[in-house]
Amino acid sequence: MLRNYLKIAFRNLLRNKAFSAINILGLSVGMASALLILFWMYNEISYDRFHKNKDYLYEAWNRGTFDGKLQCWNSTPQALGPTLKEEYPEVSNISRNYSRWFVTRAGDKKVSSEAIITDGAFLNMFDFPLLQGNPHTALNSVGSMVVTQKMAIKMFGTEDVLGKVVAIDKDNFTITGVMKDLPPNTEFRFEYILPIEYLKKIGSADEGWTFNTVRTYVQLKPGTDPKAFAEKIRDITIRHSNNTEEHEVFLHPISQWHLYSNFENGKVVGGRIAIVRLFGIIAAFILLIACINFMNLSTARSEKRAKEVGIRKTAGANKGLLVGQFIGESVLIAIIAGAIGLLTVYLTLPAFNTLIGKDLEVPVTSLKFWVAALTFILFTGILAGSYPAFYLSSFKPINVLKGAFKRARSTFSPRKVLVVVQFSFAIVLIISTLIVVEQIRHAQNRDPGYDRGQVVYHWITGDLGKNYAQIKRELLNAGIAISVTKTASPLSSVTSDTWGIEWPGKNMAEKIDFDIFTEDEGLVKTAGLQLIQGRDLDLTKFPSDSAGALLNETAAKIMGFKDPIGQTIKDNGATYHIVGVVKDFVIRSPYDHQGPLIIEGAQSYFNVIHMKLAADKSVADLMPAVEAIFRRYNPDYPFEYHFVDEDYARKFEDTRRVAKLTGIFAGLTIFISCLGLFGLAAYMAENRVKEIGVRKVLGASVTSIAALLSSEFMALIIISIVIATPVAWYVMNLWLNDFEYRTGIQWWIFAVSGLLAIVVSLLTVSYQAIRAALLNPVKSLRSE
């Protein structure tokens, strides 16, 4: 019987080549699109799920009320981890992570890369296996170092580096372990590990509870109730410090680190999980739309198989057998389409990886993958074939054999409803894409408050800090730069903030978070900041400016000074006098309003040199001269520079990626929907050929007939637009509410989306309509 069913299925495929091709193409594109999204979703969901201790691993977070809001942050005091281990028997292990970039040297090789400074227990808590060395002892000595395979090859050209020596600044480290490269699905980013004791050597050790400088990871013992334990440690900071009564400690499980990183009112509210869910819905609808095509085309051509159903039922076949046969045929088509879809995924995955910024692979050697792929294909085949199978098997033999089985044309037939569902979703995606693009454009057109052009920065390494004055003088005297400034962080970001700002007249019960930026002098000129009042810091004319400060507009308004110039403020006890006020400029997200910012003068705590290059020459012409000066004063370290405008552009990458992906899948959804529309239009034209012939004989023009045949489909598209418009507005308004600096939803977005859907659909349908209208009526009526 199975052999007979397969034979019939192949015959039907070959007999109806055009419709089979449409079905296979639609399903293959739908499955390929869904599979690409599912690959990405699996990667996102699998972040840090590979650790064998994943059920017991947590990160300690702080929670406190500031600026009238309950806020959360994941930096903690260095004393927290050891205290948890000593005072609570439920804790199995702790590790504190301090991230920092260093320049490592081995012989003539110099590499700038990121390290974590951590406790030795890190290698036992997390599954980052050592290919060489002992994880229990690898970080026992202050002079030990564990490197990844990638780092070993960078430094020595081989992975066999156990016992080799690497220099960082004036300290030598012996490699005691070689770690397998980090998998792409982990939140951790580093190329080598240094022992926690090294914090003392670099002056970053702090045994108190005042400053939050490390991330603390906790491994609980099996059987520990995490909620009960979290309640026990909630007030640990209060008990060990007199200055942080408003702080609470809570635990964030490893399973939520990647997907749930957004907090509101002290509770996790989401994060990347929103994007994962969004694209999960898109994948489901793309697959559903491909299946709808199959359903519509199969039921539309029911007349072709009605007599077969009647004869089989008369010969004794029951409904179950017929349903099995038709679902089997759809599964066969799904298998063919699935094979094409998998090949498409394999061929397009490199381009998809470039688009999403990941390194996904098709696990062709994994049995689990092939089982999952086959299950996916079978599910698609059953989903696509279920409605046609039950529809065809419901025909009554007596009506079929009499030729009286035809269903009356209905205004709201299931077929039309499915077409409306298809195009409604496609139009929602088009509208969503345009709104995302408009939001990006809105933020990009925002005045950032500073001049990004020709501004280059270099991290202070080696002897750059010691030789800064000479470097600055040479750059200015040679006309290479028009201004040079030292800062604590790059201009496009800020790495420090505080709730400890005090000023005359402040309500001391009020906690307000201020961003802190540090400069020596000349930042206004280097960055092109817009002065509203006063002046910039100038240590040459005013040596006391090392304790000077500038406020941004928002900070000045919060402090409420009638004239801020000359007023004094305190930052955690340190006094600064205000010398100027600058217009707000963007240093965090361009989608958020800039909060209060203080630019403080300092004689130390500088990490970055900013240079505003001369405008009369290109950056490409000037950089060799800049490099020559830096290398002369810092020969033992690589010259690695960055552009402020590129940093700023990277702030839009995630949103731009969402826009591209949504646009691509919207296009694929339209393509799949139009495939189905093309097939339905072809069938409609074939089914109404006699009607068309009669109309032509009675004098109807080609244009009027084409319009008649197209109007039914255009009505469905218009209904889809009416349904999609409020849905898209509601969904995208919710999305835009996540941004403080947001665009409005313009009417033209809906007009363009609707017009695009109408034009594409009209082009799809009109080909078949015009072709049918051009037929010679003699051919269609010769048998009448």
From TrEMBL:
Membrane-topology annotation of the record: Multi-pass membrane protein
Protein known as: ABC transporter permease
Segments forming domain ABC3 transporter permease C-terminal: 281-394, 664-776
Keywords: Cell membrane, Membrane, Transmembrane, Transmembrane helix
Transmembrane segments: 21-42, 278-300, 321-349, 369-392, 417-437, 664-685, 697-725, 745-765
Main location class: membrane
Residue ranges that the Swiss-Prot or TrEMBL entry lists as coiled coil: none
Keyword Lyase attached: no
Residues annotated as signal peptide: none
MacB-like periplasmic core domain boundaries: 20-235, 427-628
InterPro entries in the record: ABC3_permease_C, MacB_PCD, Macrolide_Exporter_MacB
GO molecular function, one term: transmembrane transporter activity
Compartmental location: Cell membrane
